[in-house]
Every structure is written in structure tokens, then in C-alpha cells.
Design goal:
By secondary structure, the protein is α/β, with parallel strands linked by helices. The chain has 10 helices and 5 strands; from the N terminus they run βαβαβααββαααααα. Helix 5 packs parallel to helix 10, helix 7 packs across helix 9 and helix 8 crosses helix 9.
Length: 197
């Protein structure tokens, strides 16, 4: 079996790392996400074999030379969307935002950096198989676009009860409980355009 590509999160904030790891595992399920609380721990784990580094601004500044040499792999975690407060020469990701916006930013990063996944390994068969019915895909697409059950019912000309039933079936089949997780799934499978969320 081939080794799964690795992503590293390097940050002294454990809670932030746990949250970001969860989102990354949803956005790029073919990756193994590893967490490192310090630059030293990160360096001790073969950083040259890691696909991407999500690193706090502080750690990047303290080890600027290493990260500049690996800038194509580095995504700097910032607390501001203001380009003037972000490090130049690096991809930056603002983590001080809503879950929906963070998910959207991660999806855009994945799509633009990897040509909609073309540079990434293939998805495992279980993840790429068609699990949902055509109607469930329609409902999922509308959920991802932010529509509420009543709007979905009206748009698809079905009852509210049917929408709720489809929504429950979608969540059960995918094993997902949040709208963010459903949105990630919908975008990653091409059921909704990133620009419509």
C-alpha cells in the first residue's frame, strides 16, 4: 500500500491545530494531517516528505529562512484578512473568521493550488463512488449554497417533509453532521461551484 501524502500544522495553539486538522481532513480526505507544537518537533519528522505546511505567523517569522526556501509548500496562518498585515511571498490563510468562511478559503486554496485536485493523488474508491441519488445531490447542492429547507422545497417543488427526509438521508449516508462538512463534500465532488457558496 502506498503512503498517504502528509500535511503538517505547526502552531503552539493546540486548540487551533485540532480545529484546523478536522477541517483539513474533510477538505482533503486523502491526506494524513499531522500536528506539531513547535518548529523543532516539525523538523524532527522529515519535513521534506510533507506535502504542505500550515504554520503560525510567529513560527514562520522565527524560522523565516526555512519557510522562504519552502514557500510553495507553506501556508501562513494569520489572524487578519488585511493584505498589509500578512507576510508577502507566502500564501496566507486567515483563521480568525467564521467556520463557513474558513471552509470556503480552504476549498479555494485546494482548487487553485492544485488545479481542482489534478496534482493530488486519486481519491480512494470508497470516497469517489457515487453514494447519493440524483435528487439527494440536488438537495445537497442547494444546502451547500445556503438555502434553508423551505426554500429548497419551493425550488424543487417537493414538500418540506421530503426535503427534511432527503437531508437526513444525505447526512446518514455521508456520516456528516454539519453544513460545513456537507459543503466541503459538495464542492469536492463537483456538485456545487465554489463561487456559489
Amino acid at each position: 500500500m502506498t503512503e498517504r501524502p502528509r500535511i503538517a500544522i505547526v502552531d503552539s495553539n493546540t486548540l487551533a491545530m485540532i480545529g484546523l486538522k478536522q477541517l483539513l481532513q474533510n477538505v482533503i480526505p486523502i491526506m494524513d494531517v499531522e500536528m506539531y507544537g513547535s518548529f523543532e518537533d516539525f523538523m524532527a519528522n522529515e519535513p521534506e516528505r510533507i506535502f504542505h505546511y500550515f504554520v503560525s505567523t510567529t513560527i514562520v517569522l522565527e524560522n523565516r529562512r526555512f519557510f522562504l526556501e519552502n514557500r510553495r509548500k507553506t501556508i501562513v496562518l494569520t489572524v487578519s484578512n488585511d493584505p498589509n498585515s500578512q507576510l508577502s511571498n507566502f500564501h496566507c490563510l486567515c483563521i480568525n473568521t467564521t467556520e463557513e468562511q474558513l471552509v470556503r478559503s480552504l476549498l479555494m486554496l485546494e482548487q487553485h493550488a492544485h488545479a481542482h485536485g489534478k496534482n493530488l493523488p486519486l481519491m480512494p474508491q470508497a470516497l469517489s463512488a457515487k453514494i447519493l441519488s440524483d435528487r439527494e445531490i440536488e438537495v445537497l447542492s442547494l444546502i451547500a449554497q445556503g438555502l434553508i429547507n423551505k426554500e429548497i422545497a419551493s425550488l424543487l417543488n417537493i414538500s418540506l417533509t421530503t426535503v427534511i427526509s432527503h437531508r437526513k438521508n444525505i447526512m446518514d449516508k455521508l456520516g456528516m453532521k454539519s453544513v460545513s462538512a456537507l459543503t466541503i463534500y459538495a464542492v469536492m465532488h463537483g456538485y456545487v461551484d465554489i463561487n456559489k457558496i
